[in-house]
Amino acid sequence: MAKGLTADDLRTEPEDVLVTKLKEAKEELFNLRFQAATGQLESHGRLRTVKREIARIYTVMRERELGIVSVAEDAAEGEK
């Protein structure tokens, strides 16, 4: 993955930033779907990328909810 959001980057973000990124990604996905429906979409690959970004954000949020990974633990692992 050359650019975009990675799970490691997302794990270091606070919860409020994740919620903001999720909201922005969902809005972008809506707009891309709308463009696809009207025949104005130029980059069909972007649909796939945005869906995956949303899934990554949900995964990180769920990991925190279940206590699998916390922000402090992940930050400490990143420093090693």
UniProtKB/TrEMBL annotation:
A Gene Ontology term for the protein's cellular component? ribosome
Q: Which domain of life is it from?
A: Bacteria
The transmembrane segments are none
Decide whether keyword Ribosomal protein is in the record.
Answer: yes
Keyword Nuclease carried by entry? no
> Which InterPro entries does the entry mention?
Ribosomal_protein_uL29, Ribosomal_uL29, Ribosomal_uL29_CS, Ribosomal_uL29_sf
Query: CDD domains this protein is in?
Result: Ribosomal_L29_HIP
Per UniProt, which keywords does this protein have? Ribonucleoprotein, Ribosomal protein
Q: Name one Pfam family in it.
A: Ribosomal_L29
UniProt cross-references to PANTHER family, sorted A to Z = 60S RIBOSOMAL PROTEIN L35/50S RIBOSOMAL PROTEIN L29 (PTHR10916), LARGE RIBOSOMAL SUBUNIT PROTEIN UL29C (PTHR10916:SF0)
As for family, the record states: Belongs to the universal ribosomal protein uL29 family.
Protein name, please? Large ribosomal subunit protein uL29
Organism equals Actinomadura gamaensis
Taxonomic lineage of the native organism? Bacteria, Bacillati, Actinomycetota, Actinomycetes, Streptosporangiales
